[in-house]
Each structure stands twice: as C-alpha cells, then as structure tokens.
Design brief:
The chain has 325 residues and is of the alpha/beta class. The chain contains 10 helices and 15 strands. Strand 5 and strand 6 form a beta hairpin. Helix 1 (11-22) runs parallel beside helix 9.
Length: 325
C-alpha cells in the first residue's frame, strides 16, 4: 500500500484490510506468546555475536527521573525516586547495624512506559481481541497479562541491531519535522544511502532514528509525550510483516507518525502491528550517540541486547538497550 492509496476517511476499513493481509495468528501455534520474537532464534543470535568489532558500547536509554517528558496523559508520570536509607542516616547511627556498618536503599515509583521501553503483546487490542486471536478480557485482567506478560521474552531480546537513521538520510540537519510519515520508500532510500550493513534481515531488531529526541533536548520537551511527531507511516504495515523483523524501536513517544494519517484515528499502526503481526515495539529510545558513531565509520549493524525488566504480567516494561559495535 502507498500513502496515495489511503482513504483518510476510513481508518476502520484500512485497519481491517491490513490486519487481514499481515496476520500472523497461528503461525507459531495456538499457544504462542512471543510473536515476532520467534524470528530471533538461537542461530540468528549466534550469527549476530560476530558483529562486535571495536567493543565500544552505547546505552540507548533515556534517563528515568523527574525531568522526563511525561505530562500525565492516561496517568503516566515521570519516575519518582525516593530514598529509604541514606548516608545521613548511617552517620546519625539510626540504622541499627552493628560495628559501624551503614547503607543506602531506595525505591522508584513509575509507570512502566514512562521512558525507554518495550510495548508487549498485551498492550494493544483490536476490537477486543489480543495477539493470536485471544479475547482481550481473557489475556489482561486486573491481575495483569496472564498470557503474554513481558516476562515471556525476558531471555530473548538480544541479537543483530540495525540502525536506519532516516533523520540523517532524508531530513534536514539530521531531523524530520513533526507529522512526517516515514514510508517504505524512505526506509529503502535510507538503506541505500547507508550501505550494505543496514540491510534488514529476518530476526533483526530495527531501530529508526527520526531526530525527534534531539529536537526535544534542544528546544525542551514540549509535546514530545503524546504530541505531533515524525514516525512510521501506516503504509509500512506490509514492510514490517514482510521483513520478518523481531522488533522495531524509534526515538519518539509513539513509534508511528503523529498526527496519524486518517481524519479520526489513534495509533492505527499499533492496532495492526501488535495484536495481528505480533510485533514488539520500542519507544523513546535514545539513538543519537549511536547514530553519530555509525555515521563516522559507515557501519550500521551491531550486537544489541535489550531485555525488558521482567515484571510479571506487565504489558510493557522499561529497558536499557545496549548496542556494542
């Protein structure tokens, strides 16, 4: 599908048609809970281990603190970090430990999707149906996601990462404007510009840089969390399915272009990608330092480990992705 073929007045029809074209339901059996992470198998991971050349490593995580972008949408807040025991308590001798021992402890309270994170397969439903055709009410309850909780992929997310720096290849001064819809043609042009190391393969974890985070750092958060942003076009649905990637992540809050490409729609690409393709989506990743290193030497693939914190039953989870080149 091309952007010209989209009927802006009919998101319902476009979502239904796309879901039918790209559905992976039953592909790995009726009991599957890992979706596209099944593409990231032991052989794929073993091959990716050889990508380490310099040993340089890059954290792709934003910070987890009160200075983050969250503004309360759907009760999402920035992390609240509180100390339970401190050095001043130790000096005061009120901790109750013998022979001069002291210590510090702390606690963090936060929504699991307030900073760099994965969307799990229980995060989005389509007409009350979750990944693999399961009724959403039987998957996620007040006790959490009892079927596809994020812990089901805690030991899987490590393999070949490939950066598609669309902001640098297509944009102006390394950034795309808000509302810019990244199409399959833009992704192909980026791959061609970057060279053979950015070829997308089965089982890859693809990270797409738009430059939106760099702009937020320069100009302030503004509406970074929930507002207008560049992102993947709804028309990339078929590309996301056809390439058989394990996961995709961006440096934006919502992964797909905002405003969305229909007159009245909210995250239509999510509505197809997660419950129908079974695709894991990463959001708010910090790709700037990695992108600079890749641009310097022209190598855009790397070893990437990005295991989520395995919060039992969570529909998304924080992550500190580490790219090693």
């Amino acid at each position: 599908m091309t952007p010209e073929e989209l009927d802006r007045t009919d998101p319902e029809g476009a979502i239904a048609a796309a879901a039918k074209r790209v559905s992976n339901w039953g592909r790995w059996g009726a009991d599957d809970v890992r979706g596209t992470m099944n593409f990231l198998d032991a052989g794929t991971r073993r091959g990716a281990a050889g990508l380490v050349r310099t040993g340089e490593s890059y954290s792709l995580s934003q910070s987890f603190d009160m200075d983050g972008p969250q503004k309360g949408w759907r009760r999402r807040t920035n992390p609240i970090h509180t100390m339970l025991d401190t050095g001043t308590d130790a000096v005061a001798g009120i901790q109750g430990f013998p022979h001069g021992l002291g210590g510090a402890d702390d606690v963090v309270t936060m929504p699991l999707q307030c900073s760099t994170q994965w969307d799990g397969l229980g995060h989005i439903f389509d007409h009350g149906v979750a990944w693999n055709g399961r009724p959403a009410g039987e998957v996620v309850t007040s006790l959490g996601d009892g079927v596809t909780g994020i812990e089901t992929v805690a030991d899987v997310v490590a393999g070949r990462g490939v950066l598609l720096d669309v902001g640098r290849a297509i944009g102006s001064d390394g950034e795309l404007p808000d509302g810019f819809a990244i199409t399959e043609e833009h992704l192909a042009a980026t791959i061609e510009a970057q060279g053979p190391t950015s070829e997308v393969r089965r089982g890859d974890i693809v990270v797409v840089r738009t430059g939106r985070l760099a702009r937020a750092r320069r100009d302030g958060w503004g509406d970074y969390a929930g507002g207008a942003a560049p992102g993947l076009s709804f028309t990339t649905t078929d590309w996301l399915h056809r390439t058989e990637i394990a996961a995709v992540a961006t440096d934006t809050w919502g992964f797909e272009v905002r405003p969305n490409e229909f007159d009245e729609a909210f995250q239509p690409l999510h509505q197809v990608a997660i419950p129908h393709i079974g695709l894991f989506i990463g959001e708010m990743w910090d790709l700037d330092a990695l992108a600079g290193a890749c641009a310097d030497d022209g190598v855009y693939d790397f070893w990437l480990t990005a295991a989520p914190i395995p919060v039992t039953g969570a529909v998304g989870a924080p992550v500190n992705p580490v790219a090693v080149r």
